[in-house]
Amino acid sequence: MYQKKIANTLSCGSVLTKEVLHGKWKSTLLSCIAQGVRRPSAMQRTIPSATRRVLNVQLTEMEQHGLIAKTVFPELPPRVEYHLTSLGQSLLPVIAVMEEWGNTHRTELEQVLAVSLAELPG
Fold first, then answer.
1. What are the b/e assignments for 88-119, b being 16+ CB within 10 Å?
2. What are the boundaries of each domain within the chain?
3. Mean pLDDT computed over 65-71
């Protein structure tokens, strides 16, 4: 796993929050699990632009952070389901506020982000 060269100072609550939500799909995955999408294959269908590997890495990180828990069913083929822990549940209002803010400022943000993406070399 990637190791950061400069350690984060975790003295600020917003840094802690960003640390556990850092990842393109983490807030989306938490929302999916909260809405009943519990199996990795269903999450992949819900978020088709995310690769299976990235989803698995981010699910593992969230499990390590205590946001979700994994249940492995002893059957063939193996079946895995995720559910939110109480810590993960406590993040849902934060994610809802972030979504509301994004939707409120959608027009402005889409314009700014379109310009930013167009300026990238490539």
1. beebeeebeeeeeeeeeeeeeeeeeeeeeeee
2. 13-118
3. 96
**What are the C-alpha distances in Å from 66 to residues 13, 85, 112?**
17, 7, 35
Q: Rounded CA gap, 107 and 24, in Å?
A: 21
What number does CATH give the domain 13-118?
Answer: 1.10.10.10
Q: Indicate yes or no: pTM above 0.85.
A: no
Instruction: Compute the distance between CA of residue 64 and CA of residue 17 in angstroms, rounded to an integer.
Output: 14
N- to C-terminal Cα distance for the chain? Answer: 27
What are the structure tokens assigned to 98, written together? Answer: 């972030």
Sign of CA dihedral 39, 45, 46, 47: positive
Give the per-residue pLDDT at 2: 62
Q: Using CB atoms within 10 A of its CB, is residue 59 exposed (0-12), middle (13-18) or buried (19+)?
A: buried
Please check whether residue 21 is in contact with residue 91, taking contact to mean a CB–CB distance below 8 angstroms.
yes
Residues 70 and 60: their CA atoms lie apart, in Å, by 9
